[in-house]
Write a structure and sequence with these properties.
α1 runs antiparallel to α17 and α20 runs antiparallel to α21. The protein has two domains: 185 residues, Periplasmic binding protein-like II (D-Maltodextrin-Binding Protein, domain 2), CATH 3.40.190.10; 214 residues, Periplasmic binding protein-like II (D-Maltodextrin-Binding Protein, domain 2). The chain is an alpha+beta fold and 410 residues long.
């Protein structure tokens, strides 16, 4: 777990302990998502499931733990929560899209606790105001802004390390997924719209479609700092160590004033708050340029594993997660919006209220973790990284074209 995730979960566990003083909670969360998935698969295979666990909504939940035989729910590893949801009033009090994403054939299989926007841009609002910079609304405006930041001596002088300077965009791509997320879940919908984004990843288009190639070209432009791809590392709009650092280090560059922006899901808000930056004052979270009409979303969900040793305790924890009080506490700290729609939003700041406004008005589409099988995403991200490092889109174009049918669902 990262610094922006510890306190949100702890807040719910504290509330759970208040409501269930005899209960004992053992939190076995680990730092890296892939490690957590590996340990969870091992426990489930041994018939030693945790009482509950966190999983992304959509395909990550359904393909891994519900449709385990790839055809129906007969061999699911988690319980059907539909009747519990009806009896508990969740059906009427939670956002419909959050429930639908965690459902199969109108049956709920995990409790969504929040809604995260993927296509978000974290910005140093105080520096934007200081240098009279406009938040970019289009890809071309993003290019122009990066050129201004790259060549403005005063802006560069804000960086604590004068040799490193101020990156236009912070990036921590050590594990490959942040650049892939930006390319395929931010740039693609910004260029082609929500419907095209969804249809492409559901296998309804062509693997060499011009819209996807265009998204790759935008990523390359940002990675190389323009059209000259001869020495991308030294000319990039990203930080020079982008391929060596983890995603949270890219956000630390925003904290340290070594980067002006970071393209990252809005969990960045929770991380930046934990680092004592004030939302709406020192930083802001805005839609990725050109994608304001699309809300690419995911939810943290918690299912009820079959064979859980303390089923009663797990149910009590799910009910705590679902409560109004927990929804407020958790989402204030996490940077997301509540999965419940009856929460008093007066307790949230303007940044979160803007996200909720966009959720209500924009076209909502699932993140790739909700559309694709989990085993295809690491390869997609790795091929993109390799392609960018070569200063070309050829590797990733060839990979997507050759593997489109296996990447996308049947």
């Amino acid at each position: 777990m990262n610094d922006g995730e510890v306190k949100p979960l702890d807040s719910v566990l504290s509330l759970f302990k208040e409501r269930n003083p005899q209960a004992t909670v053992t939190n076995v969360a680990v730092e890296y998502a892939e490690l957590a998935r590996s340990e969870l698969r091992e426990r489930m295979a041994k018939g030693l499931p945790p009482d509950t666990f966190q999983v992304n909504t959509g395909a990550d939940l359904l393909n891994s733990w519900v449709l385990t035989n790839a055809k129906d729910t007969q061999e699911s590893k988690v319980e059907n929560l539909q009747q519990i949801a009806i009896e508990s009033g969740w059906i009427d009090t939670f956002h419909r899209e959050a429930l639908e994403a965690a459902s199969h054939e109108d049956e709920l299989w995990a409790l969504p606790v929040n809604v995260h926007r993927i296509n978000s841009l974290a910005i140093r609002k105080d520096l934007f105001e200081k240098y009279d910079l406009e938040v970019p609304k289009t890809i071309d405006e993003l290019y122009a802004l990066c050129e201004r930041i790259k060549h403005d001596e005063q802006i560069q002088g804000e960086a604590p390390d004068k040799d490193e300077g101020m990156a236009c965009l912070g990036l921590g791509n050590r594990w490959d997924w942040p650049l892939s997320q930006m390319t395929f879940e931010m740039i693609l919908p910004a260029l082609a719209g929500s419907e095209y984004y969804r249809d492409f990843w559901l296998g309804k288009k062509s693997g060499d479609a011009k819209e996807v190639v265009a998204a790759m070209e935008v990523a390359l432009h940002l990675y190389c700092g323009g059209t000259d791809t001869s020495d991308c590392r030294s000319t990039s709009y990203f930080n020079a160590d982008a391929d060596e650092i983890d995603w949270n280090r890219s956000l630390l560059k925003l904290v340290e004033k070594s980067a002006m922006m970071v393209a990252m899901g809005d969990w960045s808000k929770g991380f930046l708050q934990e680092k004592e930056l004030t939302p709406g004052k020192e930083f802001d979270i805005v839609p990725f340029p050109g994608s304001e009409d699309t809300f690419v979303f995911t939810s943290d969900t918690f299912p009820l594993p079959k064979g859980a040793t303390n089923r009663e305790g797990a149910l009590a924890l799910l009910h705590t997660f679902a409560s109004v009080e927990a929804q407020v506490d958790f989402n204030q700290l996490k940077g997301s919006i509540p999965a419940r729609k009856d929460v008093d939003m007066g307790r949230f700041d303007s940044v979160t209220l803007n996200t909720l406004r966009d959720f209500r008005s924009a076209e909502k589409v699932l993140a790739l973790s909700g559309l694709l099988a989990g085993n295809v995403m690491p390869s997609l991200a790795a091929e993109l990284k390799a392609s960018m490092q070569l200063g070309s889109t050829e590797v990733i174009r060839n990979y997507v074209r050759a593997n489109y049918d296996s990447i996308t669902p049947d």
